[in-house]
Amino acid sequence: MKKLLGLLAATGLVASTSASVVACGDADAKTLGSVTLEGSAEKMIGTVKDVTIEAFVEGKATLNITSDKDDKTILSASNSTPFTAENLKSDVLITLKNPSEVTKEEVKEVLTVKYNDVVIGKINVTVKKDTGLALPGDTASISVSDTEVSLAVDDTKVITITITGTVEGLDVVSGTPATATVSVIVDNQFTITAVAEGTSTITVSSTTDDVADVTIAVTVTAAGGDGETEE
To answer: How confident is the model over 199-223, as pLDDT tens digits?
Structure first.
């Protein structure tokens, strides 16, 4: 019995040591390369050349590549050519998972490369801010026909809003309604009415994410002054 217990204890010790070695191997895996993706389309594909496996396993022609960001990764990676018994070497290609989604800040990820559940190494990837393809119509914005307006008291000015892309929930407010008021927006136009001498900032905004507000500086002078008059 003592011999049996000793044998079990020894076996347990070996299993524990083996697991530690595997974990250590994952953590200390060699760096296969470092890749930077940035800006222009031709720089949005990273390549790590000549990643080599020790032996081909039937039915396993591809690498298993995972990110330290797990399901939040913005990357897609794969070997460029399938492995065979005759071909044990392939480049690894790294791209954005969604190329049309432009990155708003720099992102760093570490990719772990495995073949047949054995870690081959790791790849450090840096994705620079503003990397991606902004497709036509993807960038939404608003602009106005005038950004500076001078009016005499009781004068009015019609402002036209120009929309690029998809913009929803337009709104306009006057910073100083006692000086200048604004009408509601109808067909992408609104009217500024001068009420009293002074200045006011008119702000046009939308509920669409990432669409910058637009402001109009309004100066109101005494009635009969040099302000604009809408004809």
So the answer is: 999 999 999 888 899 999 999 999 8
Q: Could you tell me the maximum CA-CA distance found in the chain, to the nearest angstrom?
A: 112
Confidence class for position 98, pLDDT limits 50, 70, 90: confident
Place of tokens 């036209």: 160
Q: What is the CA radius of gyration of the chain?
A: 32
Nearest one of 81, 65, 227, 98 to 150, comparing CA atoms: 227
Answer yes or no: pTM beyond 0.85: no
Average pLDDT of the residues of the chain: 83
Model confidence at 23, in pLDDT bands (50, 70, 90)? very low
Its CATH architecture, for the domain 30-127, is: Sandwich (2.60)
Q: What is the CATH number of domain 141-221?
A: 2.60.40.1080
Measured distance CA(43)–CA(128) in Å, rounded: 11
Q: Break the chain into its structural domains and give their ranges.
A: 30-127, 141-221
> What's the distance, CA 170 to chain centroid?
25
Between CA 219 and CA 144 the distance in angstroms is 17
Same fold, 30-127 and 141-221: yes
3-state secondary structure of 229: coil
Start-to-end Cα distance in the chain: 108
Please check the confidence at residue 188 and state whether its pLDDT lies above 70.
Answer: yes
